[in-house]
Design a protein that fits this description.
Elements lengths: L2 H9 L4 H14 L4 H5 L2 E6 L2 E10 L4 E10 L3 E7 L15 E4 L2 H16 L3 E7 L4 E8 L5 E5 L9 E4 L6
Antiparallel strand pairs: 1-2, 2-3, 3-4, 4-5, 6-7, 6-9, 7-8
Length: 170
């Protein structure tokens, strides 16, 4: 599907401001890595809002590490980490949250920059267990240490192995 077909497909039912936001946002993300762009798509209106989202994925382990969503109501954009496929913003905002008002094109730019800032962060994968048998894994942001995903039982102490996780952005 080319860009014009994509916009026509998702534009049905959007108001003028939402359409302006979507077109500006889509133009902004065209330069993103192709694999990352594949996971960025608008969701049908959600409570009157246009919702765009992105998944941060460990490409080697095919593991979704984080889902980000932005809700645009025609006046304001609210964005944060989300923990469900329904893209509901958390009741208690994370330190990464974005809330902004302004013109649709300006908000699309700010939203895309917000996505980029988080998706470009370096991710580490810690592993516990022997070389051929992993007991547990944990993915975290390298700079902040914020845990993203834990697989297996919680482990105490230093990990046996620490790797730089490969994402669409690394």
């Amino acid at each position: 599907m080319d860009d014009d077909q994509w916009i026509a497909h998702v534009a049905a039912g959007l108001d003028a401001d939402q359409l302006a936001f979507l077109i500006a946002w889509h133009e902004r993300i065209r330069s993103w890595p192709r694999d990352a762009r594949a996971d960025l798509r608008p969701v049908d209106e959600h409570d009157g809002c246009l919702v765009v989202f992105a998944d941060l994925v460990d490409t080697d382990h095919h593991c979704s590490l984080l889902t980000l969503a932005a809700h645009y109501d025609g006046i304001t954009v609210r964005a944060d980490r989300v923990s469900s496929q329904h893209f509901v913003l958390p009741a208690a905002p994370s330190p990464d949250r974005l809330t902004a008002g302004g013109a649709p094109e300006e908000l699309a730019e700010r939203t895309a920059s917000w996505f980029e800032d988080i998706l470009r962060r370096r991710v580490l994968r810690e592993e516990w267990g022997g070389r051929h048998k992993r007991v547990a894994r944990r993915w975290l942001f390298a700079r902040s240490g914020d845990a993203l995903v834990v697989q297996g039982p919680q482990q105490e102490g230093q990990a046996d192995f620490i790797y730089s996780a490969r994402t669409e952005w690394s």
